[in-house]
């Protein structure tokens, strides 16, 4: 691994390390992002909007765990977002992870679409982490074991995340098409 990738991974893991009750991010960051950022002139400070565009439950009692139980999985996705952005890459990235207690395994696919010519985002790591954390918790609240998520930072970048528990049997490579 390159040093920059290791550095991003350490930042993401440290973001997930200070667990709030139902959150994978520290309480102080959660408070910080709850402040209205719409007046900010720094695009990197603008909140990322997200929505669940598809999802469901294939296997009873296999609902995706709350974000606080999946910090390593969320950290991996945050690293993917930042890595793809720094490379200005629209290439899909797929992988897998598990809940922090090892009880639940996930498959992921992350990709970017753009309305411009670049696939990068100006969003800071903590902003990306906060959006993924909130979206993850929303998927849990809906009692889903798979979901397609769309993210936007107000520019041309649009991130997409397919996530599914392994037991759901849903293919993350085709489920959001």
TrEMBL record:
<keyword id="KW-1133">Transmembrane helix</keyword>
<keyword id="KW-0472">Membrane</keyword>
<protein>
    <recommendedName>
        <fullName>Secreted protein CSS2 C-terminal domain-containing protein</fullName>
    </recommendedName>
</protein>
<feature type="domain" description="Secreted protein CSS2 C-terminal">
    <location>
        <begin position="57"/>
        <end position="167"/>
    </location>
</feature>
<feature type="signal peptide">
    <location>
        <begin position="1"/>
        <end position="24"/>
    </location>
</feature>
<keyword id="KW-0812">Transmembrane</keyword>
<dbReference type="InterPro" id="IPR046624">
    <property type="entry name" value="CSS2_C"/>
</dbReference>
<feature type="transmembrane region" description="Helical">
    <location>
        <begin position="63"/>
        <end position="81"/>
    </location>
</feature>
<keyword id="KW-0732">Signal</keyword>
<dbReference type="Pfam" id="PF20521">
    <property type="entry name" value="DUF6736"/>
</dbReference>
């Amino acid at each position: 691994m390159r040093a920059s990738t290791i550095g991003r991974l350490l930042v993401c893991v440290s973001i997930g390390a200070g667990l709030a009750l139902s959150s994978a991010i520290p309480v102080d960051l959660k408070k910080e992002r709850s402040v209205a950022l719409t007046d900010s002139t720094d695009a990197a400070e603008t909140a990322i909007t997200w929505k669940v565009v598809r999802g469901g439950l294939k296997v009873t009692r296999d609902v995706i765990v709350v974000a606080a139980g999946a910090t390593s999985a969320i950290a991996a996705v945050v690293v993917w977002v930042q890595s793809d952005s720094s490379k200005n890459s629209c290439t899909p990235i797929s992988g897998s992870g598990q809940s922090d207690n090892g009880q639940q395994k996930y498959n992921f696919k992350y990709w970017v679409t753009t309305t411009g010519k670049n696939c990068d985002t100006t969003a800071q790591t903590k902003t990306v982490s906060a959006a993924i954390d909130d979206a993850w918790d929303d998927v849990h609240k809906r009692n889903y074991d798979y979901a397609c998520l769309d993210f936007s930072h107000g520019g041309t970048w649009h991130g997409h995340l397919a996530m599914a528990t392994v037991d759901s049997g849903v293919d993350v490579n085709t489920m959001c098409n």
